[in-house]
Specification:
- It is built from 22 helices and 22 strands.
- It is an alpha/beta fold and 675 residues long.
- It folds into three domains: 150 residues, no CATH class; 117 residues, NAD(P)-binding Rossmann-like Domain (Rossmann fold); 275 residues, Rossmann fold (3-Layer(aba) Sandwich).
- Strands 10-9-8-11-12-13-18-22-21 form a nine-stranded mixed sheet, with helices on both faces. A seven-stranded mixed sheet has the order 3-4-2-1-5-6-7, sandwiched between helices. A two-stranded parallel sheet has the order 14-17.
- Helix 17 crosses helix 19.
C-alpha cells in the first residue's frame, strides 16, 4: 500500500511539474510575442524603438500574461495530455490565447498608452502562434513517432496488387484509417501504362513478374490483393508467386464491394486454400432446381452434417412446403434447426432423430410425412474409423441406403438422390466399398422399376419385422411405381467435418507439426456450396440410374496444400512449422478416381457436370446377396470384407488390423434383433 501511495504521489508531482513548466513557457511566449511585434514595427532594430513604447509594453504585458495563464488554467489548458491532443485542446488553447491578446490590448489603452496599430495586430497573431504551434507540433511529432514505432513492431509494410478502382479505394482507406497500422510501400499491376507512376504517393513498380523482387527491395511483409474481377487462373498464378514469399496474404472477397463503392480494409479476407485450387467456382442455373423444390415435401437424411446442413439451408431458402431434417446425432440436428428457425420463421420445419438402418423408424417417417424428394446424405465417411469398424460401415451406409430407398419407393417418393463419393471407384477401403454398394443398390432399384418389376425388390428386415412392415401398396400398384433414383459422386469437400484443412489449421495454431500421410498423395477438392449445387441439380437431371460426376479440375497434392496453408498463415514450412509424413492409413490410396475405367461419360446441360453410364452387373444375384450381407453385418462377422469383395468386383481390401472375436452368445442375441 505504501508503495502504491508513493507511486501516486510521484505521478501527481510529475503532472504538476509539467503543468508549471508549460505555464512558464506561456509567460515567456506572451512577453516575446508583443516584444517581437514592437521590434518588427521598427525594422528589427532595438535601438530604434522609442522609450515611451517600451514603457507601455513593460507596464502591461506582465499583467496580461498572468491573466492569460490564469484563464488557461481555469479552462484546463494545462491539464491536457498533449500526446493525445485533439480538436478540443486546440479550441481551448485558441480561446485562452485570443482572449489574452484582447486583454493586453485593452489594458494598454486603459493605462493611457498609445502603441502603433501593427503592434496590436502582430502581437496578437504571434501570441496565438507561439501558444498553439509548439503544443501541436509536439502532438504531430509524437504521432509520427508512434506510427514509425507501430510499423517497426507490427511490420505493416504492404504490397498492394491491383492499381484499379478497387486498389485505389483500398489505398485511400488504409491512409485515412487511424486504427490501421499498415503502410502501402509499393503497388503491382500488369498494365505497363501505370508503371513508374504514383497513386496517393505510392509507386506502381511493375507487373506480377516483379513481385518477388520488390517484396525483398521494400521489405514487404503483407500482400493485399485488390483484383476482384481477376479470373481463377490469373488469381492462382499471382498467388503461386506470392506463395514463394513469407508474406501474409489477404484479398478482397469479390466484385460486389467495387460495384457498391464500399471497398475498405475491413472487406479484406485471408487468402484461403480454395483460392489455390486453380478453377472457377461451379456456376449453375438453379432456377430449375428451385422450381422443382418449391411447394414440395423434402427429406434430408444426415441433415446435420456438412453436406446435409448446407442442403437444408439452400432448400429452406426456396419455399418447400415442408422440410424434414433427419439425423442420428441430435446436437448437429438441433444446431441446424435453430439456425433455420431464426432465418426462416415461416418455414414448416420438422426435425427428427433416428437411424436410417432402423426399418420401423424409416417406414414411420415416410408413412406419416410422405416426402416427395429425398436427399440421402446420411453415411459414415471417415476412412480410418470405418477400417476399424467395417460392419458399421455396411449397416449405416449400404443397409441404411437400402432401407431408406425402399421406404421412399413404396410411399410414392418422386426423386431419391444418393450422395456418393469418388472413394467408391476401385475402392481399397470398406467405406468406399460400402458407398459403391449404395450406388449398386440405387442402380438395382432403377432397373427393377424400369422393367415394371418393383414388387420383386425384397424388403430387408430382421426377425420380428414381417408383421410390422407390410408394404403399403399392392402388387398391382408396384407396377406404377415412378420413383427416380440417382447417385451423385464428388471428391473431398473443403471445410467439411473431418476434412484435412481444419485439421491442418489446428495443427498450425498449435505450432506444428503438420501431419501428411504421404508426400505424393493427391485428392480432388470442391467447396460445400458446389457439392450441394451438384446434388440438387441431380434431382432435376435424374432420368434414373445415373451417377453424376463433377469435373473438379486438376487434383491437388495434399503436401502442397499443407505447405500453402502454412505459408498463408505467415509461417515457413519445415522451418517454423515442421511437416511430418506418417504413412498411408489402412485403406487409403495415393489418388482417388472420379470414374471407373469401364464407365463412359456424357455431358449434361452444365459443361462441368457429367453423367456416368451404369456398369452392368447381375441385379438379381446382387439383391439376393444383400440379405446375407445385412445379417453378417448385424452379427459383426469378421469376414465382412470378404463378403463385400464378392459383391463389389472392384474392391481390393487393404490389410487391416485383426478384429476381435465375437462371442457366440452375442450372435444368438442379435439374431433376434428388430431393426
Amino acid at each position: 500500500m505504501d508503495k502504491q501511495k508513493t507511486g501516486k504521489r510521484i505521478r501527481s508531482r510529475k503532472w504538476l511539474v509539467n503543468a508549471l513548466l508549460l505555464v512558464l513557457y506561456d509567460l515567456i511566449a506572451i512577453h516575446a510575442a508583443f516584444f517581437l511585434a514592437l521590434w518588427i514595427r521598427f525594422d528589427c532594430r532595438y535601438l530604434s524603438i522609442p522609450a515611451m513604447y517600451l514603457q507601455h509594453y513593460l507596464g502591461s504585458v506582465s499583467i496580461s500574461a498572468v491573466v492569460t495563464v490564469a484563464l488557461g488554467w481555469m479552462i484546463h489548458v494545462y491539464r491536457s495530455v498533449w500526446r493525445y491532443a485533439s480538436y478540443s485542446e486546440l479550441v481551448r488553447t485558441l480561446f485562452a490565447a485570443v482572449l489574452g491578446a484582447v486583454v493586453h490590448c485593452v489594458l494598454v489603452t486603459v493605462l493611457g498608452g498609445r502603441m502603433p496599430q501593427s503592434y496590436y495586430l502582430w502581437g496578437s497573431i504571434l501570441q496565438v502562434l507561439l501558444m498553439v504551434i509548439p503544443r501541436f507540433s509536439l502532438r504531430l511529432l509524437m504521432f509520427f513517432a508512434d506510427r514509425l514505432e507501430r510499423d517497426r513492431e507490427l511490420g505493416g509494410r504492404v504490397m498492394l496488387i491491383g492499381a484499379g478502382s478497387a486498389g485505389q479505394m483500398l489505398l485511400r482507406d488504409i491512409n485515412r484509417t487511424r486504427k490501421i497500422h499498415d503502410k502501402v510501400v509499393c503497388i503491382i499491376d500488369d498494365d505497363p501504362k501505370k508503371w513508374y507512376r504514383y497513386i496517393e504517393g505510392v509507386p506502381v513498380v511493375g507487373g506480377r513478374d516483379e513481385i518477388l523482387l520488390y517484396t525483398e527491395k521494400y521489405k514487404v511483409n503483407k500482400i493485399y490483393l485488390a483484383i476482384p474481377s481477376a479470373s481463377a487462373a490469373d488469381r492462382r498464378e499471382i498467388l503461386d508467386i506470392c506463395d514463394k514469399t513469407s508474406c501474409e496474404l489477404k484479398q478482397l472477397p469479390g466484385l460486389f464491394q467495387l460495384v457498391l463503392g464500399q471497398v475498405t480494409v475491413s472487406d479484406m479476407k485471408d487468402v484461403s486454400v480454395e483460392d489455390l485450387l486453380g478453377r472457377e467456382p461451379i456456376r449453375t442455373d438453379m432456377e430449375e432446381v428451385y422450381d422443382f423444390i418449391n411447394g414440395k415435401v423434402v427429406l434430408v437424411t444426415g441433415g446435420g452434417g456438412s453436406i446435409g446442413s448446407e442442403l437444408c439451408r439452400q432448400i429452406a431458402a426456396h419455399a418447400p412446403r415442408q422440410l424434414i431434417i433427419f439425423d442420428v446425432y441430435e446436437n448437429n440436428a438441433y444446431d441446424i434447426q435453430l439456425e433455420l428457425k431464426e432465418r426462416y420463421p415461416d418455414l414448416d420445419l420438422v426435425t427428427l432423430i433416428g437411424s436410417v438402418w432402423d426399418s420401423r423408424r424409416m417406414f414411420q417417417v415416410f408413412e406419416y410425412y410422405r416426402p416427395q424428394i429425398v436427399y440421402h446424405a446420411a453415411a459414415h465417411k471417415h476412412v480410418p474409423l470405418m477400417e476399424d469398424s467395417p460392419n458399421e460401415a455396411i449397416k449405416n451406409n449400404a443397409i441404411g441406403t437400402y432401407k431408406t430407398a425402399y421406404a421412399a419407393m413404396v410411399h410414392g417418393c418422386e426423386r431419391f438422390v444418393l450422395i456418393s463419393t469418388d472413394k467408391a471407384v476401385n475402392p481399397t477401403n470398406i467405406m468406399g466399398a460400402s458407398k459403391r454398394l449404395c450406388e449398386m443398390i440405387i442402380q438395382s432399384f432403377d432397373a427393377k422399376i424400369r422393367a415394371g418389376r418393383a414388387a420383386e425388390i425384397p424388403q430387408l428386415f430382421t426377425h420380428g419385422m414381417v408383421k410390422a412392415n407390410r408394404s403399403p401398396i399392392s402388387p398391382e400398384e408396384f407396377r406404377r411405381v415412378k420413383t427416380q433414383f440417382v447417385a451423385v459422386r464428388f471428391g473431398n469437400v473443403l471445410g467439411s467435418n473431418g476434412s484435412v484443412i481444419p485439421i491442418f489449421k489446428r495443427q498450425i495454431q498449435a505450432g506444428g507439426p503438420v501431419t501428411v500421410t504421404h508426400p505424393d498423395i493427391i485428392r480432388y477438392f470442391m467447396t460445400i456450396p458446389e457439392a450441394v449445387s451438384l446434388v440438387m441439380l441431380a434431382g432435376t437431371y435424374a432420368q434414373g440410374g445415373e451417377i453424376l460426376v463433377l469435373d473438379m479440375g486438376s487434383p491437388v497434392k495434399i503436401d502442397t496444400l499443407a505447405r500453402n496453408l502454412i505459408r498463408l498463415s505467415g509461417f515457413r514450412p519445415d522451418v517454423d512449422i515442421k511437416i511430418e509424413y506418417t504413412g498411408l492409413r489402412p485403406g487409403e490410396k495415393l489418388y482417388e478416381e472420379k470414374l471407373m475405367a469401364e464407365e463412359g461419360l456424357r455431358k449434361t446441360q452444365n459443361d462441368l457436370i457429367h453423367v456416368g453410364c451404369p456398369i452392368p452387373f447381375d441385379t438379381e444375384h446382387f439383391l439376393a446377396q444383400l440379405e446375407d450381407l445385412m445379417n453378417a453385418a448385424y452379427q459383426n462377422r469378421r469376414d465382412i470384407r470378404a463378403r463385400v469383395a464378392e459383391m463389389v468386383s472392384t474392391y481390393h481390401p487393404a490389410r487391416s488390423k485383426a478384429e476381435p472375436e465375437i462371442d457366440s452368445r452375442y450372435l444368438e442375441l442379435v439374431s433376434g434383433g428388430d431393426q
